[in-house]
Amino acid sequence: MDRPRPGVFRWFWYAVGGRLPERYAPWVLHDMTGPHWKARHVARSTVGIAPLCLVWLLLPGPLTLRLSLVLMATLVAYFYSCAYMEESAEHRLTKHGFPHGTGKQRRAALAEAADTEAKARYIARYRQG
Fold first, then answer.
1. Is residue 46 part of a domain?
2. Is residue 72 part of a domain?
3. Transmembrane ranges (predicted)?
4. Which domain holds residue 61?
5. Total domains present in the chain
6. For residues 15 and 114, what is the distance between their CA atoms, to the nearest angstrom?
7. What is the 3-state secondary structure (H, E, C) of 61-127?
8. 29: which residues sit within 8 A by CB, 6+ positions away?
9. Has residue 1 been placed in a domain?
10. Is residue 77 part of a domain?
11. Tens of pLDDT along 71-112?
């Protein structure tokens, strides 16, 4: 499958919610449904959270207060980012021209294929008759 990857600047644009050109649609589908899609979602979230944390660290005040602010804000940001991970992935896929529900269906199909393969390995190993 031909999936051209976006360059660094386009990836940053994509990470903050921008739309990529049409030729990157297969890559976006893989990014939202492939292995480790949750880790990639957290990485994209970090792009939005990190600059704010750096600004908060530069505020005047005691270091412990600034670190506490950064810690609490980061925990809340990651909590909400992960709580709405699937909805965010569906929105991103819809933005790139895929019908709503594509990500959920594709992830379910990939999980079913992996489960079928694992079941076959289990039967071959433990149910030899």
1. yes
2. yes
3. 42-59, 65-85
4. 8-126
5. 1
6. 28
7. CCHHHHHHHHHHHHHHHHHHHHHCHHHHHHHHHHHCCCCCCHHHHHHHHHHHHHHHHHHHHHHHHHC
8. 93, 96, 98, 102, 103, 106
9. no
10. yes
11. 999 999 999 999 999 999 999 999 999 999 999 999 999 989
Structure token pair of residue 37: 């899609």
- According to the model, what pLDDT value does residue 129 have? 55
Distance (Å, whole) CA 62 – CA 129: 69
Tokens for 121?
């390995």
Question: What is the DSSP secondary structure assignment for residue 36, as one 8-state letter?
Answer: T
Give the DSSP letter of residue 6: P
CB atoms within 10 A of CB 2: 6
* Contact (CB, 8 A) for 32 and 92: yes
**Could you give the CA distance from residue 81 to residue 86 in angstroms, rounded to a whole number?**
10
Q: Which residues contact 59 (CB under 8 A, 6 or more apart)?
A: 66, 69
Q: Which helix (H) or strand (E) holds 53?
A: helix 37-57
Query: Which of 88, 94, 97, 92 lies closest to 23 in space, CA to CA?
Result: 97
Buried residues in 64-74 as b, exposed as e (16+ CB within 10 A): eebeeebeeeb
